[in-house]
Amino acid sequence: MATAGTSASSSALTAEEKKNERLQRLRELQLKRNEARKLNHGEVVEEDKRNKEPANIEAKRKRLDWEEQEAKKKKECKEKGLDYDRMKLLEVQADEAERTRNRKKKANPLTGFSTYEDMTARQNTRLTKLIKPDMKEYAEKKEKMGDAFYADVDTLGLEEMHKDTEEGIDKMCDDLEKQIEKRAKYTRRRTHDDDADIDYINTRNAKFNKKLERFYGKYTTEIKQNLERGTAL
């Protein structure tokens, strides 16, 4: 009888342990479910946030990071008394520099003069790429001037409201000096050579003489030299 009672008690304890084990597993599953629910909710919030952001937000972030690094390097070079542009070029490999130069050529090709409209458009494209507006100053002026910030046909005293900064004037002068220096490298093609011998009486005769020289010059060179020396027969 004692053995039967002990066996029954062991069976009861085993059932209780199994019950507790099941409850423990159930609690663990509930905790995992809650954790998964929180993670899913966080992912949904982040995805919704990404969808609401502009399409080029990542590019803007990379651009801002790059500008921050560039400003830091410029400051370091200035403190050390180094030329930033020169130090930057030392870090550029030859093949990369060649690719950059080719990209610039394709973006703004030097097609030569075609029309004044094309020349003006190319100049405008080049100048607008150099513009780096100060958005803080822009917002302050806009708030200060109100409706007068956007001038129309009835706006008076525009020169008093919009005053050029010293930095802007210096930048314009530097650009004009660069244009003058660039133009000085090019000369107008001359229609005739001032040092050449004049063997014609008018433009038509000059063209005829050039044609003769092109076809018979190699045969008459010696005769011309003899005539100039006075040794011709």
Percent strand equals under 5%
Structural class comes to: mainly alpha
Mean of residue pLDDT values: 78
Q: What is the global morphology? A: elongated
Helix content: over 70%
Task: Explain what the structure shows.
By secondary structure, the protein is mainly α. The protein has a domain at 14-43. The protein contains nine helices and no strands. It has helices at residues 2-52, 57-80, 84-90, 94-107, 116-130, 135-145, 158-161, 166-184, 203-229. It is elongated. The relative contact order is 0.02. The model has no long low-confidence stretch (mean pLDDT 78).
Please summarize what this structure is:
The protein is mainly alpha-helical and 233 residues long. The protein has a domain at 14-43.
Primary descriptors:
single chain, 233 residues, 0% strand, 74% helix, mainly alpha
Topology (SSEs and partners):
Elements: H1 2-52, H2 57-80, H3 84-90, H4 94-107, H5 116-130, H6 135-145, H7 158-161, H8 166-184, H9 203-229
